[in-house]
Amino acid sequence: MTPLDLAGYLIAGLMTAVALWRMPAALWGDEEDRRRRALWGCYAGFALALWTKTRFVRVGLNDSPVTDLSVLIKHYTATIAILAILSYIVAIYGRYADEGAIPRHVRFARLIQQVAAKASVATLVLLTVLFFTVVDRSTPSDRFVADHAGQWGATLYMSVFYLYLGAASAVCAYQWALATGSARMRHLRVGLGMMTFAMFIGVGYTVSRTLFLWVSVVDRPSESFALRFDEVTEAAQLVLFLFFAVGASIPALSNVRRRAKLWRAQVRLHALWYELMTAFPDQPFEPPRPLPRELTRFDTPADLRVDRWAADIADAVEKLRHYVPDTLLPAAEAAGGGSGSPLADAYWIKAALTARDGGAAAGEAAAVSTQHATDQDGEVARLVRVAAAYRTVTPERARQILDMCDTTGKEQPA
Q1: N or C end of the chain: smaller count of CB under 10 Å?
Q2: 245, 14 in Cβ contact below 8 A?
Q3: Could you tell me the sign of the dihedral formed by the alpha carbons of 294, 299, 302, 308, in that order?
Q4: Do 62 and 52 form a contact (C-beta atoms < 8 A)?
């Protein structure tokens, strides 16, 4: 296996990893993520195309009953991936809500929207016709461009694909170059810059290969020169995909810290949330599930799930107020180190849940701690501390706090 073959496997694996990483958010995320479904389609399409270029897959497909099948599959998947990225360009840069003159990049994106789908369909049809009619496929090839250098049929076939690929690369380079200049956040600017550089490589790749093929029709090169040219441009394309994959991932990596924080919040809140939702099964949208199952759900974004758990806990606490006396609050605060402490809140919740499970009758709402954070992130952080304290409260300790209360004043329902 040559270094170029090994690099091909590595880049295909990298693009596949990016596609798998971004798949949950693209398919099951919120509206902001769903707009990026087209970009995920580009990752997936190019991942498939790159795998068809790897030596094992390439040789296997080319030696199949359909000679050089890997070339056709590669161009099919690449064309679909290009259509996906053009759709992403339109979705991101084709919107302009403000009044007044429409910016040039917006007008350009809308023009692309009008021609992209039609151009993709026309390219696929034309490639298929040319592949089965004018391309010499009498013997399987290993390096298609090098092996078919000087043949007008293969030159025409590849020129159609390179025209489509080069035009799309130029569009992306133009839009991302403009976006790079206006990006305020450093990580976004770096990512867009890398993607722009990758597209410039793409333009150079398609132009150089197209020129090589047409010059070869006039003056056929030696086999060694053709193979060397193919390997050099192939290496340049692998560099292109490396910059594209990394550049497209950098902006998303900025969210890794927040996602890790949300993941930790789920882990820490789950025990408290699960116990309360088991006590009030009608409270959550869906029945509570064990922690491993909750962490592997992709139908709800992590931030929305954490916010929902915080609201569920608050609603459950509100319901528990009807099963305890007003004296529980000062008793819990005395045992837990004062008003507003996480341990005091944990004592109150555990004691109230114990009273309810013990058959306490519902009555008027009792007093409860009113100290809350000023925003949702702060409230989640507060509940995480309460949940940590809650894990230390034993049922015996909760009953002791209940015994400290004067339950004679609890009003019973009529």
Answers
A1: C
A2: yes
A3: negative
A4: no
Sequence-distant (≥ 6) Cβ neighbours of residue 134 within 8 angstroms? 152, 153, 154, 156, 157
Strands (E), 254-336: none
Structure tokens at 185: 């956040």
Q: What distance in Å separates the CA atoms of residue 111 and residue 214, rounded to the nearest whole number? A: 30
Report how far residue 70's alpha carbon sits from residue 59's, in angstroms, rounded to the nearest whole number.
8
End-to-end CA distance of the chain: 84
The answer for residues whose C-beta is within 8 angstroms of residue 269's C-beta and 6 or more apart is 306, 309, 310, 313, 380, 383, 384, 387
Neighbours of 217 (CB within 10 A): 14
How many helices (H) and strands (E) are present in the chain, helices listed first? Answer: 17, 0
Q: Compute φ and ψ for 99, nearest 5 degrees.
A: -75, 165
Indicate the SS3 state at residue 339: coil
Tell me how far CA of residue 228 lies from CA of 155, 162, 231, 235, in angstroms: 18, 19, 5, 11
CA angle (403, 409, 411) in 5-degree steps: 115
Residue 348 to residue 335: CA distance in whole angstroms: 10
Tokens 């916010």 locate to 307
Could you tell me where the DSSP H helices lie in 134-255?
Answer: 144-147, 152-182, 186-218, 223-253
Would the pTM count as exceeding 0.85? no
Q: Report the pLDDT value the prediction gives residue 103, as an integer from 0 to 100.
A: 65
User: Quick one: tokens of 203?
Assistant: 């333009």
Say how far apart CA 65 and CA 164 lie, in whole Å: 28
Report the alpha-carbon distance of residue 133 to residue 153 in Å, rounded: 8
Distance CA 307, CA 302 (A): 9
pLDDT of residue 413: 40
Q: Could you tell me which of 25, 18, 85 has the C-alpha nearest to residue 302?
A: 25
φ, ψ for residue 56, nearest 5 deg: -60, -50
How many Cα atoms occupy the beta-carbon half-sphere of 184 within 13 Å?
A: 0
Single-letter amino acid code for the residue at 194: M
Amino acid at 339: S
